[in-house]
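@channel sequence for tomorrow's demo:
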Amino acid sequence: MLKSYVAAGAVEDLSDLAADPAVKDRFLPSIAAVGKVDGKTYAVPNNGVKPVVVYYNKDLFAKIGAQPPKTWNELMALVPKFTGAGIAPFTVSGQAKWPLLPWLAYLIDRIGGPPASWTTSPRVSRTPGRTRR
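structure tokens (generated this afternoon):
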């Protein structure tokens, strides 16, 4: 989506701001990188942006003969191997249901993209570019 804003001239180049150590040192490079298009920074994370971290069990990966994946597709390709070995590929700990909510929101956004977010948010209409009040 950011790339389309850049192409339309709807956003400003923030590369100088992003290079300032007072700004740059506040974010993980992988988080800051999502605001770049063609090597220039057009968006910076806000304070509410947190990385999504996945922990893995080395023993269970060894049991199925797998290495930690580097991409989402590699991770998804391991799911049948885990389930075939009788291992749940993902878990969320605790009895409270709230720890799962950030994961669901993240996956809806990352896999479903803007159309999925538009249909799940009570504040946004299903028509792109129109905000429901």
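heads up for whoever presents: Confidence is low (pLDDT under 50) at residues 120-133.
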